[in-house]
Design brief:
membrane; Rhopdopsin 7-helix transmembrane proteins; Transmembrane protein; transmembrane; transmembrane helix; 11 helices; 2 domains; about 75% helix
């Protein structure tokens, strides 16, 4: 096997450092700009720590390959940085997948598919740990038949998990029926968010597997930036989703009354509430109800969504149940 090219290693190091710098900036900007749950803050900070460790491993590997062991064929030695990088890369993938599994569970409460996805996550993590043990015990294990089998298996299951999560979340979101345009927009963005993250990271993982056999320099580049690809794809889409939702909230109107009127309504028969504020006796209610019903049949009045009146009375925005999804 040909040795790694020094230029490719240096380019990987520079590019990875730039990606991590961008990740740090976007993470702190996001946390300072938007209100987030404790779970989301822990997840984003956990990604920063994991990717920091992996970035340090890339820098150390660059020095070892380019300076200390320049020109040495890669099969002759596997540095200790590789097992650590494998663990940290799959840790980034696990955090990103756990984020989406949590969102899927909050929306659907589907314990069967959620459990299946968790099994997939544990499976690729277990194979990643097995790969680390095997590589640590054998300096050339990563490039032998057995070593590549572990690498392919863990990468393939990880990619399949990304696709499964994206497909399940998108399908479930599209099954949710709502009468409100802003709510539909939020749900549509959540589905697009899941597809973008899932298929982007899956494609990056598949490229890593392919380059392991076709271009070792390409594998080095893809593998050592895979964790940042997971983190930045998640973070970038999360920021865009929050910005789009915030824009919707601003455009929809400054008051709950205007917001309510800006939403489409379902044509349902007018219903009367026995509200004490009406101060109406039985004699006056019955003729008025009959007259309004007759006018409705003749098309001279517009029917109103009862929930619209309820929202104005109680100052409730029906979109609140999905605003927290991101």
């Amino acid at each position: 096997m040909t040795p790694l090219d020094a230029d490719a290693i240096l380019i990987t190091s520079w590019f990875n450092t730039a990606l991590y710098t961008l990740q740090v900036f976007l993470t702190f900007w996001y946390l300072g700009q938007f209100e987030t749950s404790k779970q989301s803050r822990y997840g984003l900070c956990g990604m920063l720590v994991v990717d920091l460790v992996c970035t340090i491993m890339v820098l150390i590997s660059t020095r070892l390959y380019v300076v200390n062991y320049a020109g040495l064929e890669v099969v002759d030695v596997i540095f200790w940085t590789l097992p650590v990088s494998i663990l940290m890369t799959f840790a980034s993938a696990t955090i990103e997948q756990a984020f989406f599994v949590s969102r899927y569970w909050n929306i659907t409460k589907d314990k069967w598919l959620t459990g299946t996805i968790i099994i997939f996550i544990l499976a690729h993590d277990s194979l990643a740990i097995t790969t680390v043990v095997y590589v640590s015990a054998n300096s050339t294990a990563q490039y032998t038949s057995a070593g590549t089998k572990y690498t392919i298996a863990s990468g393939a299951i990880c990619a399949a998990t990304d696709v499964l999560i994206a497909s399940a979340l998108t399908w479930r979101v599209n099954k949710i029926h709502t009468f409100y345009a802003s709510t539909r927009n939020i749900l549509r963005r959540v589905g697009f968010f899941a597809v973008t993250c899932g298929f982007t990271t899956a494609a990056w993982t598949i490229i890593m597997i392919v380059t392991l056999f076709t271009a070792l320099n390409g594998w080095f580049f893809v593998f050592y930036t895979l964790g940042r690809a997971y983190s930045l794809t998640l973070l970038g889409n999360l920021i865009l989703l929050r910005l789009a939702n915030a824009k919707d909230s601003t455009v929809s109107g400054s008051s709950n009354y205007n917001t309510a009127l800006s939403e489409p309504v379902v044509l349902t028969p007018l219903q009367f509430s026995h509200d004490s504020s009406l101060r109406m006796n039985n004699h006056s209610v019955k003729p008025q109800s009959v007259d309004l019903e007759r006018q409705g049949r003749q098309g001279r009045i517009s029917f109103v969504d009862p929930s619209l009146l309820d929202r104005q009375r109680h100052n409730v925005d029906p979109r609140d149940n999905v605003k927290s999804l991101p």
